[in-house]
Amino acid sequence: MKASILGLCLLLMGTQASFAQTASTNSSATAPTRAQQEIIDLSRQKWQWMADKNVDKLAVLFDDKSKFVHMSGTWKKDEELDIIKTGSIWYKNADVHDVAVELFDNTAIIWSRITLVAMVRGSEAKTEFTVTEVYKKQASDWKMLALTFSSVRDTHVIKH
């Protein structure tokens, strides 16, 4: 009898652990797991590297096949790094208002609602976006596979 109950408990724990995890920085949500916080921190660090035009760090973070979707087009890693390096787009400051993270095995998706202040071809722009980033764990490091900017109103809310 004890063995049956123990077996049932282990089965339930294993089943629960196999489901995807979700988290957010919304105050009404539960605290993020360690893995989710790692993605949140990495995303915030990426915004700082973009502001600093630190293409060396970004080159390591971006997967070689990564894609970037902006309001004016879609391009690949080398083009994104060149845009950042030359200042064609200078991501001066990303004020992150809210994030939601979902983990699926070795893949993470993070949605961030931001106010972005950027210099775009010499003109400063302040725009509200929801940014979707997709990361994949490769060996011991996370690599960004995709980054997509979606223009939204400042009242836009991310569903958690």
UniProtKB/TrEMBL annotation:
The keyword ATP-binding does not apply. The keyword Signal applies. The lineage of its organism: Bacteria, Pseudomonadati, Bacteroidota, Cytophagia, Cytophagales. Keywords: Signal. Residues 39-144 form the DUF4440 domain. InterPro entries: DUF4440, NTF2-like_dom_sf. Residues 1-20 form the signal peptide. This is Nuclear transport factor 2 family protein.
